[in-house]
Design goal:
Length: about 375
């Protein structure tokens, strides 16, 4: 891996190593990708208000999230299909998160099992739940996550159906995972053009299935995921049985409004992730940073509030914390690192963000993430109205 100076460099390196269909699966969003772009733009629109002539020798980045002390104010959020980005991608990312002192959240839709990821990591792990396969299948996975010592359950609420990711359709993703061999042929050249990736993919066992979605004793096949997701929508009334089956902290992921934050709290959520799934689901919703103040106000200290979407720089993390987030989740920022270079790529992504945050704190004249607040940022008028 040549030295990546920032997350954009890791993105370019991932683009060079991965086949088009895999890179675009990470990089793309829904429909016109308006929300995906808005997420990153919103961070640029918020400006910083530094205090000059403040000498800050050490910066404390530690944060407590759901009772667990973390070395960093950002967590690795759930990203599906990471085994396609790099052999045993989930395990490599979990190791890197543990080494950095933060959480790795394992998606339901990944190619490594709950238990294998646990064995790869000595750090805190969360499990992200989709109800694919129905209640019984989900209950079995919840029990496995509990036995393996995962410390929080993330319930994703924004995936009533899969978003329309047009890049995936153009790259032949449906044909590639389908059973019609002839239909696959025109789309296979992109894989031959990436021999390094292809060798790793074949060594890792080829096309992954989903070991955390066990249906009739077998892991769900990749080809079935779209149809299964359509029947897996979660409702607030599911939170009752999920809470009972899990018996630990629950995080509701995918909240955009104060009203839904209220519903999540009434459903028993201990934390909320202000998230639009990185602009991969409903295109046209507002940037997460813009709706964060509304959600923080509605929650009013009754739950922890996290944010994800568009974080590419440490200063983005700082801005979200200034506007009331307890911590943030990163998605593509580490997925690019994994696609570029496996575990070392994820570690590089984490290190880039960590050193960015330290530098930003020193330039702001603030010695800890706990000391950040609204006084360190200016929010453009349109944002201020929603806050
Ligand atoms: C390739 C990819 C796969 C994802 N898979 C999941 C998933 O399985 N479950 C989930 O709750 N969120 C999933 N997400 C959404 C992320 O958890 C997160 O909300 C999003 O990536 C944040 O935006 P960012 O990528 O701009 O940081 C996925 C995101 C990406 C990029």
């Amino acid at each position: 891996m040549t030295a990546a100076v920032n997350i954009a460099d890791l993105r370019l390196q991932a683009e060079r190593r991965l086949p088009r269909a895999v890179f675009d699966y990470i990089d793309g969003g829904a429909e016109d990708e308006v929300t995906m772009r808005a997420n990153t733009q919103a961070f640029r629109d918020v400006t910083l208000r530094p205090r000059g002539a403040v000498v800050t020798k050490e910066c404390d980045l530690s944060t407590t999230v759901l009772g667990t002390r973390l070395a960093l104010p950002f967590l690795l959020g759930p990203v599906g299909s990471t085994r396609l980005f790099y052999p045993r991608g989930e395990m490599r990312a979990a190791e890197a998160a543990a080494a950095a002192g933060t959480v790795y959240a394992l998606s339901t839709l990944t190619g490594s099992s709950i238990e294998d990821v646990r064995s790869a990591s000595s750090g805190p792990l969360w499990y992200q739940l989709y109800l694919v396969g129905g209640r019984e299948v989900a209950t079995a996975a919840i029990a496995r996550a509990r036995r393996a010592g995962y410390s929080a359950l993330v319930v994703t609420t924004d995936t009533a159906v899969a978003g329309l990711r047009e890049r995936d359709l153009r790259n032949g993703v449906i044909e590639l995972v389908g059973s019609d061999l002839l239909a696959r042929v025109p789309h296979t050249l992109q894989f031959l053009a990436r021999p390094r990736w292809l060798a790793g993919f074949l060594r890792d066992g080829g096309m992954m299935s989903f070991p955390n979605v066990v249906i009739d004793g077998k892991p769900m096949r990749y080809a079935d995921v779209g149809a299964m997701l359509e029947r897996a929508a979660v409702g607030w009334d599911d939170f009752g049985w999920i809470r009972e089956a899990w018996g630990g902290p629950i995080v509701a992921k995918g909240v955009h409004t104060g009203e839904d934050a209220e519903r999540a709290i009434r459903a028993g959520a201990d934390a909320i992730v202000v998230s639009n799934h990185g602009g991969r689901q409903l295109d046209g919703v507002a940037a997460t940073l813009r709706v964060l103040p509304e959600v923080v106000a509605a929650v009013n200290g009754r739950a922890e509030v996290f944010l994800d979407g568009g974080i590419r720089r440490g200063s983005d993390v700082v801005k979200a914390l200034c506007l009331g987030a307890n911590a943030v989740l990163i998605g593509r920022a580490y997925a690019y690192g994994l696609g570029a270079a496996g575990g070392p790529g994820v570690s590089r992504a984490i290190e880039i963000l960590r050193t960015d945050i330290v530098r930003t704190l020193k330039l702001l004249g603030c010695s800890s993430v706990a000391g950040l607040g609204r006084e360190f940022v200016d929010v453009p008028a349109a944002s201020a109205q929603s806050g």
